[in-house]
Amino acid sequence: MSSLSLAVRDSSTMLRRNLLHARRYPSLTLNLLLTPIMMLLLFVYVFGDVMSAGMGGGADRSAYIAYVVPGILMMTIGGSVVGTAVSVSNDMTEGIIARFRTMAIHRGSVLVGHVVGSVIQSVASVVLVGLVALAIGFRSTGATALEWLAAFGLMALVALALTWIAVGMGMVSPNVEAASNNALPLIVLPLISSAFVPVDAMPGWFRPIAEYQPFTPAIETLRGLLLGTGIGHNGWLAVAWCLALTALGYFWSKAVFARDPK
Predict the structure, then answer these.
(1) What is the rounded distance in angstroms from the CA atom of residue 165 to the CA atom of residue 252?
(2) pLDDT digit string, tens, across residues 36-47
């Protein structure tokens, strides 16, 4: 078999392994999925009218639903990849990665299996949260079919970028608890972005923290695509952040995986 055929075969095997693990132990996935759903319900039904009025739109909960859903979808992706960091760390600490290194398999297939499996789970989580958003009143009437396709492509690209970062975090963590803690910024960063309020409404000293981070341009781009409004310079910023994080996570994970076990 050619090298490419071996890589595809072994990567497919590792992908099935990770999907089976996710199916057999769904508690982590469900816990990470419930967080964005609870945040969505909390901000819409408890804070919705107040937040909408504070943004100058009057006490209109439906307007705030349209604003907050894109941020919640990005938050879902950030939360989903935490499970990847935990899964990778678990493989490292249990010694299965060391065994894979001694087997006649394509070395990169172990990482590819984790990454592809995580992206699939992230997209599935986004779909489920999106269905909840539709059930409580979110409507995307201004978006075209092309904008919907671009929105899904953006979310898949964000999931890919964050997954590679999570894989690196999992590989350098000494245990699963540390992996979960190391991946916490992927949940915290959306909270201090434009997910819940516009950047312009934030205090001046806090505004740069929200503006100059990867989630804000991704959220603004997704918001523009789903609502059929302009995205300005946020589109290329979001893509640039995703490509940079993907490259960083890939080379980081590859370098750690190539080290000889201690």
Answers:
(1) 8
(2) 899 999 888 887
